[in-house]
Design goal:
This protein has helices at residues 6-31, 36-59, 76-98, 102-127, 134-163, 170-195, 213-238, 242-270; strands at residues 65-66, 69-70. With 274 residues, it is mainly α.
Length: 274
């Protein structure tokens, strides 16, 4: 991967983290079967990450290319404004949830989720020029956001069972099952991306993509192995082995986030959405 792409890689992963966490929190809040204290903590965590994502978006000088990877700079303003809206609404969602104003909180969270979807669409337009197309790039960002959000909030939710073991297992089991489905879809998306054409990038990385070790790191340690861990966590949560499920999700979270870092680095050096 290119060192010049590192700030952009960080920005992309932070945006996925923010939007995906907000989506997962609002969805599980709407279902109403997760502990209220978990929802409040998750909302506050999302707001903090949203602040960081917005700050990085403002600080990174987004030009016309990244080490030969062309960018559509016309979308920079839209990306920053969308992230500002996501940040503002996530803060309001957190405040309303802490004050037990659940209907207001859900309305704010839903609006923030829509703004997050718009932010991912603007980012997709920003980086889609050399890829097969906007749809595939946007899809990879959406599924990546869901993976990061679900694994982070799943690991966080596991801690509530360690403190209160009598909580119903349904919320954690549903979240791990959802995460497993997302990761399977990610693997299929990677296969589709490899099969579709894309522009050749003239940069400091000239290794063919199938010979690039980061591709196999992405698949093995960013998808396959954490997918196995998530399946084990899903099985453990069904048996109410919540301590085991939480420990497995700790490892899975680290691998999924690192996998997304590798995925975005690959994207910005090979034009391969993954």
């Amino acid at each position: 991967m290119s060192s010049a792409a590192l700030p952009y890689t960080l920005l992309l992963v932070l945006i996925e983290f923010t939007v995906g966490s907000l989506w997962v929190m609002v969805a599980w809040d709407a279902r109403g079967n997760a502990a209220a204290s978990f929802v409040k903590f998750g909302a506050a965590l999302t707001a903090a990450v949203a602040a960081l994502a917005f700050w990085v978006a403002v600080q990174v000088d987004i030009g016309s290319d990244v080490d030969g990877y062309p960018l559509d700079g016309d979308w920079v303003r839209e990306v920053r404004w969308a992230l500002a809206v996501v940040f503002g609404l996530s803060v309001l969602y957190t405040v309303a949830r802490i004050r037990e104003q659940r209907p207001v909180a859900l309305a704010l969270g839903t609006c923030g989720s829509v703004a997050g979807l718009a932010a991912l669409a603007f980012v997709g337009a920003l980086i889609a020029i050399p890829t097969w197309g906007f749809a595939l790039t946007f899809g990879s960002l959406v599924i990546g956001a869901l993976a990061v959000g679900a694994v982070t909030m799943g690991m966080t939710l596991g801690h509530w069972y360690l403190v209160t073991p009598r909580l119903p297992e349904a919320p954690l089991r549903e979240m791990t099952g959802f995460l497993l489905a997302v990761m399977v879809f990610q693997a299929l998306l990677l296969a589709v991306s490899l099969a579709l054409p894309r522009d050749a990038i003239q940069n400091s990385v000239d290794t063919p993509v199938l010979e690039n070790p980061f591709l196999w790191m992405r698949f093995g340690f960013g998808l396959a192995f954490p997918g196995l861990l998530v399946w084990m966590a899903y099985d453990a949560s069904g048996a109410r082995a919540m301590q085991s499920a939480t420990g497995l999700l700790y490892i899975a979270m680290a691998l999924v986030i690192c996998g997304e870092v590798v995925a975005k680095g690959l994207l910005l050096t090979t034009a391969l959405p993954n």
